[in-house]
Amino acid sequence: MKEKMSLSADVRSNPKLDQPWLFQNLPSYRPVVRKLMTLTSLADVPLTEVQDVLQTDTAFTADVLRIANSPLIGLRTPVTGVLHAIMVLGLERMKGLASTLALRAFLIAGVPTDAMQACWRHNLATALISEKLARFLQIEVDTCYTAGLLHDIGRLALLRARPDQYRQIFSIDPDGGFNLLEIERSLFGMDHCEAGRMVLEV
Fold this sequence. Notes:
This protein has helices at about 10, 20-25, 30-40, 45-55, 60-70, 80-110, 115-135, 140-150, 155-160, 165, 180-190, 190-200. By secondary structure, it is an all-alpha fold. It has 2 domains: about 25-110, no CATH class; about 110-200, no CATH class. Helix 3 crosses helix 6 (about 80-110), helix 6 (about 80-110) packs parallel to helix 8 (about 140-150) and helix 7 packs antiparallel against helix 8 (about 140-150). The termini are far apart.
């Protein structure tokens, strides 16, 4: 049986941390993502406008083309143009893709830890499950996907900002009265829900 880890006294005695430390190691938010999410939320937006936004970011465009040509889409002929890719994927999927690539920046900015990768996989799985459930509940699919994807963004932020401290949590015996939010508040002066609100309000 794994021994229950007790939090060190110096960590417990830390005063509540100020907000700025949370944002020091966050990846930069690519302008194309913000523009694309805003644009795809509009009704009857011309696809050429979406194309114009995409073409401002070569790396993002490459991601879109790669997904449009992936086995997941299953087209018989290759997609070589941006406008064609947008038509194939649709605005709903484009919006979800923008959210996914924005959040994936937490992994590719720096060296990802096992905990970071596990949290990312959890977020992505939650997004995909939320998307499927939305179809049965007649809720907007893209909204549910984005909500699932972002529901643990605060944990990603804490993992990026304080990886060594957050690693302590994974050593705690879950059978010993484990309360994640309480432990996070002991370590950081905030839990991942509060951290997520701060990140999304920036």
